Amino acid sequence: MEAGTAVQALAQAETTMSNPHLPTELLDHVVDHLHDTEDALRNCCLVSKSWIPRARRHLFADVRFKTEEDLELWKEVFPDPSTSPGRHTKALTIDRPHVVTAADAEAGGWIGGFSHVVQLKLDGPRGRHDGYESEIFLVPLQGLSPFVKSLKIYYSVLPSTRIFDLIFSFPLLEDLAVTKYGYVGLNEDDGSNGLQTLVQRSNPPALTGSLELLGVGLLARQLLSVPGGIHFRKFTLEWEHGEDISLITALVEKCAHTLESLDVTCGPSGMYILYRRPYR
Fold first, then answer.
1. Is the CB of residue 30 less than 8 Å from the CB of residue 6?
2. Would you say the pTM of this structure is higher than 0.90?
3. pLDDT at 195 exceeding the cut of 60
4. Can you list the domains of the chain with their CATH numbers?
């Protein structure tokens, strides 16, 4: 049955039934069936208040904040973080995170309501912008959710040590992708600027999935020092300078017992390595 037809039929059923509420099991089954049909899910919210909680699980499973205004609108519609649908969000994307998290801090740490996120993506500006030099914007995101398994960071200027702190705040992290836009201007210092590291590194994440690093040499060296080692199954690695091949070699050797797929681009000559057979 088409999604729209299903919603109309069930809406009519609720209207004609002496008891206006469908059995929970049936309601959950119907709404779950519509999980990838946004318009139908929105219509479900209009049928009855009893339909709203289940529909929200799917409507807000994937949330993206593009601007500070997006956050303000979210707060206006859902003023109480403890009851907002953010708890249903599994995939959270934040564009220009140094702006959005600053706005969140002014509101008392509102982003913390997204406590069940599994996939986190931070997409920063492609160049110099106000606030780029401060790593403080990463602090509200550390430990955002204990369920994060995938972390993707895209940025042009960012201290790699602060990225490392963010990585270590997610104990179940498996997949990691860090891309430096343009390969120019990344702050590859220790990122401390007189600040203490905020996350202890004695409890490393799983790091058993995929690793994608584009132009981030210092972060690669830090990963090599992870207590207990790294156990990635898939590598996608790219560097601008051929001398960084030693880092690539070290990463491959570190994961020789688990690596299944290797995709490497390195050096001005465009050297390309592709290895997709079991690496054992």
1. yes
2. no
3. no
4. 1-59 (no CATH), 60-275 (3.80.10)
